[in-house]
Design goal:
Layout (H helix, E strand, L loop, with lengths): L1 H10 L1 H4 L4 H8 L6 H8 L3 H7 L3 H11 L1 H5 L1 H6 L6 H25 L12 H12 L1 H4 L8 H17 L7 H28 L7 H15 L7 H22 L4 H4 L8 H5 L8 H18 L3 E2 L12 H7 L1 E2 L1 H14 L4 E4 L6 E5 L12 E5 L5 E3 L11 H7 L4 H18 L4 H17 L4 H14 L3 H14 L4 H23 L1 H7 L17 E4 L5 E8 L6 H6 L13 E6 L4 E5 L3 E3 L11 H4 E4 L4 E3 L1 H6 L3 H12 L1
Parallel strand pairs: 1-2
Antiparallel strand pairs: 3-4, 4-5, 5-6, 7-8, 7-11, 8-9, 9-10, 12-13
Length: 643
C-alpha cells in the first residue's frame, strides 16, 4: 500500500501540488507512511520538501506511529519532553536500530562455542551509547537532546522489535541473542534505578516505594515481557474504587464515602501517608470491604498447589492471574489500603509475611490491642493471639519483629527466588532465575557474603564474568577473614578458567574445525540434529542438537547413570538433547525414538542451535549446520519415511 501511494503521488505531483496544505498534511501524517517514505516523498517536489523538512509535529507523530511501545514508556516520554529536533531524533532511532541489528547478528558466530555470554560480550552496545553522546565526530548531525539514557532505550526497543518480528517459529537464533542483549541492557538500566531508589530510602514505607519496587523486580526477571507501570497503577485504582462502591452499599456513613466524595486518595496524598486517615471503625469497614472485593468478587486466590512457582513473586503476574504468595499479596493489599486512606506496615514474620495496622494511637490506653495483624494470604484475616500463626509467640516476641524496610522486603523476595532457582537448577529456567535473583541481591545487599559467594559459583559454572568474580572474592575476604579457605579455592578455579579461555581464544579457528562431525565415519548414527524425539523410558519430549558415535561422558557419569545396565551399554551413539522441561540431557540411542507429537520444544537454548521450527523438525542455524554438515540429508530421508 505504501509503495503504491508513493508512486501515485510521484506520478501526479503536479496535480497534488495544487491541493491545500491541510490535505497534504493529512496525507503525510497518515500512519501507512513511514519516516523513510517521508524522506523519499520530500525528494519528489519542492513543496513536499518544504512541508516535510523541519516539521517538528509531523516527525513527532511519525516517531509515535513507528515506535508505539517506546513512546508508551513513561521514562521515554520524560526524556523526550524537551526535544526540539524530532526529525533528527527519528534519524537517530533508525541509526540505532541498524547498529543493534548488525551487532546482534555478529554474536551468533563469535559466541557459538560459549556456554553463556559475559558482560564484556556486550561492549559494542555500551560503547555505542557513549560514542554518540561524547565523540564530537558522532555528535554532528545528531539530535541535540540525544542522551545516553535515550540511546539505551532505543537499543532496548529495537531488541524488543526483533523479538516480536514475524512468526515466533522463525529467526530463532537472532531472537536468542537479542534476548541476551536485552537482558544485559535492561539490567544496566534497572541497576541505576535500583541504586537511586535505595539511596532515597529513609526507612519509612510508602505506597510508591513498595509498588514501584515490586514492578522493578518483575522487570528484572521477565526479559520477554514489557511491563506497563501505568496499566498496573490503574488496576490498583480500579480495585480501590470497587472497594469504595462496596462501602457505599454496606457502610454509607463511612468517612471515605461522605467526607472524600467516594473517591480514592490521589497518589500524592497516598504516598505521604504516615498513619491512617480515618477512625478505627472506618478503617475496619474499609478492610472488610476490600477483603470482599479482592477475595470474593475478584477471586484473588492462594496458590498452594504451586506455591514455589516463580510467577507468584512478580506483581504484574499476581494482578493478571490473581494468584500469589503472602509477600506479593501483602504489597498489593498495602498499596490499595493506602489509596483508601488506611496505613499498614509490613512485618517480616518468620515463614509468613503479614501486615499490621495501628488500631489505637500511642496515647490511648489499649496497649495489648494497639496493633492488629493481618494475614492477607488467608483472605485478609485479622489475627488474634490465639491464631495459629501467633499462638506460639508472646506479645513481646511479636513486637520485636517490628516494621521492615523496603530493602528488607525486596531482599526477602529475592531470597525466595534464589530458593526457587536452586530447586529448579537442572532446568535453564531455574538457572537464569537463580542468577537473576543473586545479581539483584548483590545490589540490594552489597555487603552480604553468602549471596556473592553463590553468585561467584554460578559465574564459574557458566565460565563468565571471571574478572568480576575475582573482585567479589577479594571484597568477601576483606569483610570476612574466616572465608579465606573457600575464597582461595574459588580463586584457583578463576585462574584456571581464565588461562583456559586465553588458550581457547588463541586457537579458536582450530577448535572450530575439529568440532565438525561427518556421518560417513560414524555409520552407527541413526538420528540427526533437529529431530524431535521421545525418550522411551522417561517419556520426555526433546530435540537433538548433537551426537557422539560412542558415549563421551566420564566413567563416573556412566556408572552413576547406570549406562552399563543398558543392552548396548556405552558402545552406542549418544545424543545431546534439549528437553521440553527446560533441562539438557545426554541420551542413549536405544532409549530414543521419533516423536509422533511434533509440537515445539520449550527450551531457552533452542535459538542457540536452530534458526527455525518447520512444523515437524528444527532447522539448524549456520553454526550448527557447519558442525554436522551431513545431517540434513538424513533428516529429510527420515521425515519422508515417517510420512
Amino acid at each position: 500500500m505504501t509503495s503504491s501511494l508513493i508512486s501515485t503521488v510521484t506520478m501526479s505531483a503536479a496535480g497534488i501540488e495544487s491541493l491545500p496544505n491541510e490535505i497534504l498534511e493529512a496525507i503525510v501524517t497518515n500512519k501507512c507512511l513511514t519516516a523513510v517514505d517521508l524522506c523519499r516523498l520530500s525528494c519528489t517536489a519542492k513543496r513536499f520538501q518544504l512541508l516535510i523538512a523541519g516539521n517538528g509535529e509531523l516527525w513527532r507523530r511519525k516517531f509515535v506511529h513507528q515506535w508505539p511501545l517506546l513512546w508508551r514508556n513513561g521514562l521515554t516520554r520524560r526524556l523526550l519532553s524537551q526535544v526540539t529536533d524530532w526529525q533528527g531524533l527519528v534519524a537517530d532511532r533508525y541509526a540505532c536500530g541498524r547498529h543493534v541489528q548488525q551487532e546482534v547478528a555478529k554474536l551468533a558466530d563469535s559466541h557459538y562455542f560459549d556456554e553463556e555470554l559475559s558482560n564484556e560480550s556486550f561492549k559494542a552496545f555500551v560503547d555505542y551509547q557513549y560514542e554518540l553522546t561524547t565523540d564530537d565526530n558522532h555528535r554532528q548531525n545528531r539530535c541535540p537532546e540525544l542522551t545516553t539514557d535515550l540511546i539505551h532505550l532505543f537499543q532496548m526497543d529495537e531488541l524488543e522489535c526483533l523479538l516480536r518480528n514475524g512468526s515466533e517459529r522463525k529467526n530463532l537464533t537472532i531472537k536468542y541473542y537479542a534476548l541476551k542483549v536485552l537482558r544485559f541492557l535492561r539490567h544496566e538500566l534497572l541497576r541505576r534505578q535500583w541504586l537511586d531508589y535505595l539511596a532515597n530510602d529513609s526507612g519509612h514505607q510508602s505506597v510508591d516505594d513498595f509498588f514501584n519496587g515490586a514492578l522493578m523486580i518483575s522487570s528484572w526477571f521477565q526479559m520477554n515481557r514489557s511491563i506497563d507501570e501505568e496499566h498496573y497503577r490503574r488496576q490498583v485504582e480500579l480495585i480501590a474504587q470497587l472497594t469504595i462502591d462496596e462501602l457505599a452499599v454496606n457502610y454509607p456513613s463511612n468517612a471515605i464515602v461522605h467526607q472524600n466524595a467516594a473517591k480514592c486518595l490521589p497518589d500524592s496524598e497516598a504516598q505521604q501517608l504516615t498513619e491512617s486517615k480515618w477512625s478505627a471503625k472506618d478503617c475496619r469497614q474499609i478492610m472488610q470491604s476490600l477483603n470482599e472485593v479482592m477475595f470474593n468478587q475478584l477471586h484473588f486466590m492462594t496458590n498452594d498447589d504451586d506455591y514455589y512457582e516463580m510467577n507468584n513473586s512478580f506483581m504484574d503476574q499476581v494482578i493478571d492471574r490473581r494468584l500469589g504468595i503472602p509477600i506479593t499479596y501483602c504489597i498489593l493489599y498495602h498499596t490499595i489500603c493506602a489509596k483508601l486512606g488506611v496505613k499498614t506496615f509490613g512485618v517480616n514474620f518468620p515463614h509468613h509475611f503479614i501486615l499490621k495496622w495501628k488500631q489505637y494511637n500511642d496515647d490511648e490506653s489499649h496497649d495489648s490491642y494497639r496493633w492488629i495483624y493481618i494475614d492477607v494470604y488467608n483472605g485478609g484475616q485479622q489475627l488474634t493471639s490465639r491464631s495459629p500463626l501467633l499462638a506460639n509467640h508472646s506479645d513481646e516476641d511479636i513486637d520485636r519483629v517490628g516494621v521492615c524496610s523496603l530493602r528488607d522486603v525486596f531482599c526477602r523476595m529475592c531470597r525466595n527466588l534464589v530458593e526457587i532457582g536452586r530447586q529448579q537448577e537442572i532446568s535453564s529456567d531455574g538457572l537464569i532465575c537463580l542468577r537473576n535473583a543473586l545479581e539483584l541481591l548483590c545490589i540490594l545487599s552489597p555487603e552480604e557474603n553468602e549471596s556473592q559467594l553463590l553468585l561467584s559459583r554460578v559465574y564459574l559454572h557458566l565460565n563468565i564474568n571471571l574478572e568480576l568474580v575475582n573482585d567479589m572474592l577479594a571484597k568477601i575476604s576483606e569483610r570476612d577473614p574466616n572465608s579465606i579457605g573457600v575464597v582461595m579455592f574459588l580463586r584457583q578455579s578463576v585462574t584456571s578458567q581464565l588461562s583456559a579461555k586465553r588458550n581457547t581464544s588463541a586457537n579458536n579457528n582450530n577448535n572450530r574445525k575439529s568440532a565438525v562431525k561427518h556421518r560417513n565415519v560414524n555409520n552407527d548414527i541413526k538420528y540427526a540434529i533437529g529431530m524431535i524425539m521421545l525418550h522411551k523410558k522417561y517419556n520426555y519430549r526433546c530435540v537433538i542438537y548433537g551426537w557422539d558415535s560412542k558415549c563421551a561422558a566420564s566413567r563416573d557419569w556412566i556408572y552413576q547413570m547406570g549406562v552399563y545396565r543398558l543392552p548396548n551399554k556405552d558402545k552406542q551413539p549418544f545424543y545431546n538433547v534439549l528437553v521440553d522441561d527446560g533441562s539438557t540431557r545426554y541420551a542413549a540411542q536405544e532409549n530414543l525414538e521419533p516423536c509422533g507429537q511434533s509440537d515445539e520444544i520449550k527450551h531457552l537454548e533452542i535459538g542457540k542451535y536452530f534458526q527455525e521450527f518447520a512444523e515437524t523438525h528444527y532447522i539448524p542455524n549456520e553454526q550448527k549446520a557447519g558442525e554436522y554438515p551431513d545431517d540434513d540429508e538424513t533428516l529429510i530421508l527420515m521425515l519422508r519415511e515417517s510420512l
